[in-house]
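Researcher: I'm comparing several assemblies side by side, and this is the next one on my list. It has 676 residues spread over two chains. Same procedure as the others: predict the full complex and return the structure.
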Amino acid sequence: MSQPILSVRGLSVDFGEGRHRFRAVNKVTFDIYEGETLSLVGESGSGKTTIGRAIMRIHPVSEGEILFRGERISGPLSSREERRVRQRIQMIFQDPMASLNERAKIDYIVSEGLYNFRLFSSEEERKGKVEKALRDVGLLPEFASRFPHEFSGGQRQRIGIARALVMEPELLVADEPISALDVSIRAQVINLLNKLKRERHLTYLFIAHDLSVVRFISDRIAVIFGGRLVELAEAETLFRTPLHPYTRALLSAVPVPDPAIERNKQLVIYDPSVHRYGEEAPQWIEAEPGHFVLGTPREIERWFQS
Amino acid sequence: MTGETLLEARDVVVKFSLRGRILTALRGASLDLRRGETLAVVGESGSGKSVLAKTFLGMLDRNGSICGGSIMFDGRDLAQLRKEKDWLAIRGKRIAMIFQDPMTALNPLKTIGEQIREVLVLHRGMDRRASRLEVLRTLELVGIKDPERRYRQYPHEFSGGMRQRVVIAAAVACKPEILICDEPTTALDVTVQAQILDLIKSLKRELGMSVLFITHDLGVVANVADRVAVMYAGQVIEQGTVEEIFTDPRAPYTWALLASLPQLGIKGEDLFAIKGTPPSLFKEIKGDAFAPRNPLALEVDFVAEPPIFQVSPTHWAKTWLLDPRAPTIEPPQSVIRLRERLKAELAERQRPAEAGRERAGRERQKGSAS
């Protein structure tokens, strides 16, 4: 594969002070390669959104660093560097009903980034960019003069995507971009994201909890539990040969649209106390090429056998 | 598989008045629920699935009313019930409901024991001592450990999954005949979701309830349902056993719903997507409501509403494709593939331990050799 576009190195994020200090993300390390879709899956409170927000510089990093094309983008940056990062990494949010300014027209919503970064030399150029962004996501240019409430959930999510695209980003951080959408609309947005990836060589960090969608769109999947990555592998490898007991529990719980399978389903329950990490601390180990897992060497050998 | 019909809705029409405009949320919806079964109602938001469930409980918002059809339950037509007093004998007692969000269904200022107890006092006239014991029994039944301690705790001391268990306990405390579950697991994590689904299934068995399960997730349907009703634009357009709906769907909308599942997509290819958006229910709908989004629609679909065609004694669909005069139209490839693909996956899943591990072992050896 190509060069990493983003490297997360030993990232920790803490919230609160003193006695109330809470470590939401604990020493997380992974790379995102150019042109791939890497998904981060985990349950609510696992820290997946916090990682996305740390990359976006919304949350300060407590430990470790984040590199974008080899340059550090975490911690203090000069305002020039900061602007560059904020343009080249864009975010799509979960709830299309809450993430658009109700009082602004679509034209302004999509242009806001362009105004902030003065990415146009004339009014004509700006209009042209907005028009193109709307077309790219399958909306009509005349929608620019309307307000968000005139659109359905799926259309609003397209507006959210257009607003990110207009900045010509290299990396898109998409935080649960389709979980709020209906089944029939969901497929449209998945197709759109895939099309944009192909045509614009975009790279995605996809944050999600719905594993069936994740399997379909991801090149690689990282599983996070309690603020730590527990497993990372190519999507199909992870589904076929999950190693970590948490990954197995997660996969066993995914509903499959087949009554025969669902009826014979055996739920695997994950019990973190099986590890006994008091005796030996777990490491982030490459168990087979491209397949990383958190555990002690002995554990991993056993997981391979079972 | 299931017993006699317990509740039968026929051609239910519900209208809401919104700022002077009339929204027809249900356009003649029909379904039947049998004793001891789980019926899943599937549909997108706005298809009317929650509205239909609310008519069974007399819980429509003030601006809405039932304008036609009947809902027969135990010899009475619920569509004709007007007095709140009559509803109190049914709602919560014989037909109970649990909602999507366990955060808002509980009163944050009362202990959970008190909240379940008040249901028993109201509906079964129990005294303090008896109701307390019954609450403890119910908490145990829904899988809450250490019920004595939990009884005195407040909702904020419970996790999302545990709170949903409390809500379920309050709903089943009166041993209702019908439990309506409106997307009870949508707000929960998958691992917790699977546990709650298991709980609902075991409660159904133990208490002999019928369950009406509203969801948009076909994976969840496959897990819980005996039979399925598919809703679109205010109507039930297909009803059948869970096997019939997954292996032999007949209505084009059911095809589209199944085909757009990412599990059935081929990686790297576009997913089957339904074009456009559901029709506005403020306007009158002519013909088959799905026709404008259906590339395979027949001419008649735009003119006349299809009647119900019986496919088997347990399976019917509202589509002109089932008319003897209709041309033969095959479902999308992915729906045909559904059977084989998932069967193969089943075989693989039954032996994940050996097959999966062996392959991993082989690949690992290959990896270290290269």
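Model: For your comparison table: The longest strand of chain A covers residues 4-15.
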